[in-house]
């Protein structure tokens, strides 16, 4: 399982879920539904904390995690760590401010910036199939889907239409991407075949499809729906990190 970069999978999925929760909470706060309640922002912060633990475990020397910030001028990874830190700080201040509207907006802005930076960090040039807008698109879809999926677990009114739309978009993008890559260069085609042959890829689509069916019942089974979506997104992220082919494997051959 080493090639699937489990710490990065947990970090990206959980951090993007946290951003999604922050965006939903901000929207609900602006509508006057949740202002003055700290619990929601505490939950958002705890999810981000779990993501941060996974990120630290990915480092070769976790005790020197602060070194990841020393190359902000050139490294997207350093910018990602800074973005996560700023987002976490904003969520913490919003918690202390009891979900004040201004702080909620600031937290959401930092969250969006974090995901945008992640979209650049993991769109490695050597991974030609994902070295484009696909990575950022996939990450923001995760924000959309997991943010909506977590809403009922916070005892908030579920956003069923938005969730169902997000699931459809997620499935469509995951199916379309390999089909597009089949018409690309050698490494792109290798990535397409790798994804399509992956049991994790098929399982992720099945979980997402089952979640879409389950979502027809609205908020009757929020926990089941959340588990299906989390597993589906998690498996698709395993494929993203583990089955995307690098140009390194094709050195010396035609592209």
UniProtKB/TrEMBL annotation:
One of its GO terms (biological process) is anaerobic electron transport chain. GO terms for cellular component: dimethyl sulfoxide reductase complex; plasma membrane. One of its GO terms (molecular function) is dimethyl sulfoxide reductase activity. Keywords: Membrane, Transmembrane, Transmembrane helix. InterPro entries: DmsC. The chain crosses the membrane at residues 6-27, 39-61, 81-97, 104-124, 130-154, 166-183, 195-213, 225-249. This is Hydrogenase. It comes from Salmonella arizonae (strain ATCC BAA-731 / CDC346-86 / RSK2980).
